[in-house]
Write a structure and sequence with these properties.
- It is built from five helices and ten strands, in the order H-E-E-E-E-E-E-E-E-H-E-H-H-H-E.
- It is α+β, with helices and mostly antiparallel strands.
- The chain has a six-stranded antiparallel β-sheet with strand order 6-9-1-2-3-10. Strands 4-5-7-8 form a four-stranded antiparallel β-sheet.
- The longest helix has 28 residues, at 2-29.
- The radius of gyration is 21 Å and the shape is flat.
- The model has no long low-confidence stretch (mean pLDDT 82).
């Protein structure tokens, strides 16, 4: 009886290990495309232009579906949110992905503005050609009234950027262009607590809804999926 149980456990472990190995392998080997892009966000402050930008690397995985999966594959990204230093000394941060006003990641990336080949799904934009990013694909903008206090984080509507940049600040637009420049790594220069924040995030300091929202938003200040 004991041998039978041991044999059953071994078979189960092999089956589970094989499944995990398959899932891992399909994400690694079924890569449709990989590229870097520069996202540039444009503002005007008291009639003077103000732009900020950052480079992100993105890899698209599209493996075959398993059984009843309705959505297959994932997007891997590497890079930092874009700091936007305003003349009044305040800094806003444009995240790496769109998160809804509450707590859920919507799955939208600014890279949606780049043209793709319908037959392969590969990005087909010429190097350095700029494309306009729609409002739906613009990542969230967040602001920390106290940059030393991650719990002070607020979401800022692009049309109300004057609440951060001052009464003369206005959001204009955002553009994206494929590039071969290095990935931007600057966020810890502005928010040194970022690398340890999630491990120290205490749900007792805020309500659960806010706690989950902060977890998601902080995840898109820096990503290193690759």
């Amino acid at each position: 009886m004991r041998r039978l149980v041991v044999a059953f456990v071994l078979v189960l472990l092999i089956a589970v290990s094989s499944l995990f190995a398959f899932i891992w392998a399909r994400d690694v080997f079924y890569v449709v495309d990989a590229y870097r892009y520069r996202l540039t966000v444009n503002y005007v402050v008291d009639g003077k232009p103000l732009s900020a930008s950052g480079v992100v690397q993105e890899t698209i995985h599209k493996p075959p579906c398993i059984l009843l999966e309705q959505t297959c594959g994932r997007v891997s990204i590497k890079g930092d949110a874009i700091p936007v230093p305003f003349p009044n000394g305040k800094i806003a941060f444009v995240l790496l992905q769109v998160v809804d006003g509450h707590r859920i990641t919507t799955g939208e990336y600014p890279s949606r503005a780049l043209p793709t080949e319908s037959s392969t799904g590969k990005m087909s934009a010429p190097m350095h050609q700029e494309f306009k990013v729609s409002a739906d694909s613009l990542p969230n903008i967040v602001y920390f009234p106290n940059t030393n206090d991650p719990y002070s984080m607020t979401i800022v509507d692009p049309d109300r950027i004057d609440e951060v940049g001052g009464p003369g600040a206005k959001y204009l637009d955002a553009t994206i262009a494929v590039t071969d420049e290095p990935v931007t790594r600057v966020i810890t220069n502005y928010l040194p607590w970022h690398s340890t924040f999630k491990s120290r995030l205490d749900p007792a300091k805020t309500d659960f809804f806010r706690y989950v929202q902060m977890q998601n938003l902080v995840s898109y200040l820096r990503r290193d999926d690759l």
